Amino acid sequence: MPLFFCLKFADIRFFSLFCSQKLNILLMKSLKVILLSVVAAVFVSCGTTNTVPITGRQQTLMVSDGEILSLSTQQYQEFMKTAKPSTNAANTAMVKRVGQNLANAVTTYLTAAGLQNDLQYYTWQFNLVQSNEANAWCMPGGLICVYEGILPVTQDEASLAIVLGHEIAHAVARHSAEQMSTQMKQQYGVQTIGALAGMLGIGNTAVSIGQAVASQGLTFANLKYSRNHENEADHMGLIFAAMAGYNPQAALSFWQRMSAASTNQTAEFLSDHPSDATRIKNIQGWMPEALQYYKPKTTTTTAAKATTKSTAKKATTTTKKSVTTTKKK
After folding, report:
1. Is the overall model pTM greater than 0.90, yes or no?
2. Residue 186: which H helix or E strand, with range?
3. What is the pLDDT confidence band of residue 244, given thresholds at 50, 70 and 90?
4. What letters, b where the CB count within 10 A reaches 16 and e where it falls short, cover 283-303?
5. Domain ranges, ordered by start, for the chain
6. Which residue out of 67, 133, 148, 167 is catalytically annotated?
7. 48-51 vs 58-61, strand pairing mode
8. Is 135 helix (H, G, I), strand (E, B) or coil?
9. Is residue 167 among the annotated active site residues?
C-alpha cells in the first residue's frame, strides 16, 4: 500500500474520530440545555395555587404560611425590642381598638367563606410607636406597626381603619409569601442563564452583562408587581374597613390629605406604590362595592346619647301625664 494512501486513510480516520467527538460534545451540551430547561420549568411551575379573598385572583406560592409566619414573628419581635412605644395612651388604645375591630371583621369573613383554617396563621398585634414618619406596615400573620406620624393625616378612626385595613389586606392576601416565591423563581432563572452560557462556552464578561441585564429587568418587573399588590391591598382594605363598620368613603379624604402631605414626587412607573391620584381614582371605582358591606358602627358614646335622649323623652312624657292628671283633679 502506497505511503500517501496510508496517510490519507489515517487522516480520514482521525477526521471521523474528531467529528464524532465534536458531535458527542454538542449532543451533551444540548442534553444539558434541555435538562436545565426542564428543571427550570418544573421549578417555576411548582408550588401551591391559592385564591386571594375578595378579589379572587389566583397566585402560586412556594413557601408555606407556617414557614413565613415563624420568620416574620422573629423579625417583628426584634423590631419591637428596639422601637419606642408611643407614650400617648389614648392614641395607643385607639390603634389597638380599630385594629381589633378589623381583625374581628376579617375573622368573621374568613369563617363565613370556609377559610377558617387560615385563622391559625394570624397572631394579630397592633402597636403604635414613636416616629414622625407617616407610615404603617404589616408582617405576615397580622403583625402591624403604626407610626405616630400618620395620625395627623388620618385624623379620625375611620381613616385609621382605611390604613389598617390596607395593611391587614397584605397579610390576608399573602403578599409577602408571593413576593418571596417570585424572587425565588427569578433568582433561579438568572442562575440558569449563567449556567447555560457557561456550558455553551460564552465568555465570563458576556455572562456578567447578561445577568446584570436580567437582574435589572427583574427589578423593574418587581416594581410593577409590587404596585399590583398595593392596588389589591387598597381594594381589600376598603372592604375590610366597611365590614368593620367604618365608612369607606373616608378613604377619599384621607388620600387627598396624604397627597397634600407627601413630598415624594417619584414617577409612578419607578415607584413600588401607585400614585395618590391613581389610588383615589381606583377607590372611587371600588366604592359601590364597599358600601354594600358598610353598616355604621354604633359606638358606646352614641349609644349612651341615644339612651339618654330616650330616657329624657320618657321622663318628659310621664311628667306631662302627671300634670294632666293633676289638672283633671
Report:
1. no
2. helix 175-199
3. very high
4. beebbeebeebbeeeeeeeee
5. 63-181+218-293
6. 167
7. antiparallel
8. coil
9. yes
